[in-house]
Amino acid sequence: MGAVSSCCESCFRSRRSQQYEPLLLENEREAVADLLQYLENRTTTNFFQGSPLTALTTLSFSDNVDLQRSAALAFAEITEKEVRPVGRDTLDPILFLLSSQDTEVQRAASAALGNLAVNTDNKLLIVKLGGLEPLIRQMLSPNVEVQCNAVGCVTNLATHDDNKTKIAKSGALVPLTRLARSKDMRVQRNATGALLNMTHSDENRQQLVNAGAIPVLVSLLNSMDTDVQYYCTTALSNIAVDGANRKKLAQNESKLVTSLVALMDSPSLKVQCQAALALRNLASDEKYQLEIVKADGLTSLLRLLQSTYLPLILSSAACVRNVSIHPQNESPIIESGFLQPLINLLSFKDNEEVQCHAISTLRNLAASSEKNKTAIVKAGAVQSIKELVLEVPMNVQSEMTACVAVLALSDELKGQLLEMGICEVLIPLTNSPSSEVQGNSAAALGNLSSKDGRTASDDYSAFNDVWEKPDGGMHRYLYNFLTSVDATFQHIAVWTIVQLLESGDPQLISNIRLSGLLNPSIRQLALSRTPSATSSVGTPRSHRSQSQSYADTDAGDGQGEIQLLARRILEFVDGDTDGGLPRSVAGSHMAGSSVSSARDEELRRSVREAFSSGSHH
């Protein structure tokens, strides 16, 4: 927050005509004369050093209240015109004036100090010299002008991180909270601005909550003043970062969401933006995710999402992403018309964060419902991903490939996705510098290769088309994963090969059987029980997901499962078959193994669940 202007029109009126008490000390008479002369030449005079400062200091420390008023008014006017870093020799007389019992002196001195507190160096020195104590006393003044200037000064001081904790511990928060309810709009603005400046650290937020600030801030969301709305909305957004505070808000502030939803329609863009951000932070919790939809927050969020103003797009996209985490919100979001705007934002190259929020929301919306997956594909999401994914930043690639992996879980959609040529972009990404992009891309390919209830009409030609290209095709990708030091990647590779063999596609089966690249690695995995490093990547993961991550599916024996799958592949590759399913998959025991068909099915289901564990985040 910037400078808070003084409430008084600080000006030093020449007192030539005023008859001072005849008992003025000689040095005071000289100081008055000197000051009047300096003020006549104020444009060329530096009042912060030398004789001008000496004259002001003499009048400040005088026992004569009239002289103190003159000095305070002069300081206020001078600092209104010019602010620079000052030393103790300037601040000491102003701080002395701040402790005066005279209201006019207090008002002008606090205005001068508030003006100087715009400068970074001065902020620190004012607090170091003990400026908080007299400012707190003045905040308790019955005079509104004094309150206003004192609070404004504290607001400026609170913009420096080194001062925040000192202010929080000084006892200033309780009077600030009380003054936030002031009937004087200037005092209210300054007080809420100061409270906002105190919400940027965990410790200070807690002090603020303890001072009773939350109900005051919530009630002032309904203020008619745009600045007050902005300060309170932003302060509550910061407070809502903490889980304990969200719980407190949920228990005690039943009108909070309704007020914030209303503020998304404020005439002020900055208020709209902060309201959406506050709702985003609240929507970290399930209760608020549901409540925002119930309060018709989607209508305003959709409008903000389609704005041309980046901060509004970013704040609303972040909010919708969090709201979409709840399964019950998937269909309402889709039915409210969000799909096309979200897909449009995938190509929002001006801001990577917007792209991430948009694709993550689409992935969340696809998590629980076949109907929603179909709607997302029909709206053109996969086509957009295919066109963009090789060019977008790595974080966006990770989210896009995770989204495809979730969509590819649908047996009804696999054929469409393969026809779109999605494998052509997934295969190069299995060799990404990012292990997360690699894993998500491989998970998507694995999900596309598997199908419950296969039929003779299933078309696997798309995998033949990409067997050797691009970038070495499926062939090279599977080899890279089979020879990876990461057991998770090995697991994905052998599981995917099993799916391809189960397809019954003669060309695919021939490609695998005749591969001099794959078979040596498969034989090695079939024999080896040497532990490999495991990774948590390879599955589109989720903050909400209650299912396993890929690395969790091994039940402590992931290498054993890799060995079983590798042996299953070899039984087929080495077996005397005519292109049908290998015997082990058809239900008989695996050669050399006591694992039954039930165990086979359990193993397949375990890995399939690993691929399907990407839900909401």
Automatic annotation (TrEMBL):
GO MF assignments: protein-membrane adaptor activity
Biased composition annotated in UniProt, kind: Basic and acidic residues: 598-608
Chief location category: membrane
Alphabetized PROSITE patterns for the sequence: ARM_REPEAT
Record's GO cellular component terms: fungal-type vacuole membrane
Cited SMART domains: ARM (SM00185)
Family, as annotated: Belongs to the beta-catenin family.
Record protein name field: Vacuolar protein 8
Originating organism: Suillus plorans
